[in-house]
Amino acid sequence: GRRREAAMETLVLDNGASTAKIGFSDKRVSVLPNCQFRSRTARLKTFTSNQIDEIKDPSGLYYILPFQKGYLVNWDVQRQVWDHLFGKEMYKVDFPETAIIITEPYFNFNSIQESMNEILFEEYQFQAVYRTNAGTLSAHKYFEENSSELCCLVVDSGYSFTHIVPYCKGKKMSEGICRINVGGKLLSNHLKEIISYRQLHVMDETHVINQVKEDVCYVSQDFYKDMEIAQLKGKANTVMRDYVLPDFSTIKKGFCKPLEEMVFNGKYKTSEQILRLTNERFAVPEILFHPSDIGIQEMGIPEAIVHSVQSLPEEMHPHFFKNIILTGGNSLLPGFRDRVYADVRSLTPCDYDVSVLLPENPITHSWEGGRLLSESSDFMDLVVTKDDYEENGHCICEEKFDI
Fold this sequence. Notes:
Strand order of the largest sheet: 3-2-1-9-10-20
Helix content: 25-40%
Shape: globular
């Protein structure tokens, strides 16, 4: 049986609620939409994952998502996305010769786990499966690269949630896991509401406004000072940006007007459709730090980090504070790392070192961790093989996977 294992390929799939990070462990990773789309123009056709690139006019794009509130509930859509990703157009997976490392959320429901086992083993017939959390893979990568460290705190701020998860010697410490129900989806939705209320109805333009968020939003280092600047007139208002919306004929993708081309008084001569953004740029990401700003009674990220660490044995606290890792798409907001550092620093005893690390690519960080794990010598001891599953069913997965 050892020769078979040597020939086996490993597919790593970080199956997020917004994007799937996927690739064979010996190749590069791709970040693809984990959903289907219908366009306003071609109503009958459904586009899956990266087929979004074929849609000529993505205005009023309708999203069909496998995940609701952070959990995988729409299996029909998920199957179609996976069929597309695993199939001949994309990864051409040879299931009997392939092991899969796949991620799922913390505190996932048992019924969802059972469905996933069934689909992976019985429908696709993967040779071996390893189910884990994205943060566990990120922690694995961190410990591999920093072998002298005993602890780390993974802050994963994604589409549905932000999780704060302490790891010690590679094991997650469940009693310290903290979840905030704030993620990228909430930020985009809130930005849609503000823009619709202030200047232009964009409630149906998820795709476009998501791009606006990524292009112009940032995390303020001094909220009240930025609020004052945002109220100034003319060039003194250094926060103001004019965003050119796409029309999907000449302008395929929205962009920020260069500062030297901005017209502060009067109208633009061109026919472009412009969004003028001021305090939205930083007030929207501020929700990650103060969810109460929009009536969500939860802690912000820095408080939650401190809360998580304080629920663990005191002698470990300094180890966590000096190994905070940021992952997930929200950590790409300019200023995010610096603000997390400043706020955690101000909430922490001054005899503790605080260090906040933003990896080179926070979105694919856990995929990279999965790739490293698949190369480790004891990887085959972690997986459940198809034979194991056929013999013991769901319970063998419950025993083996630290979920």
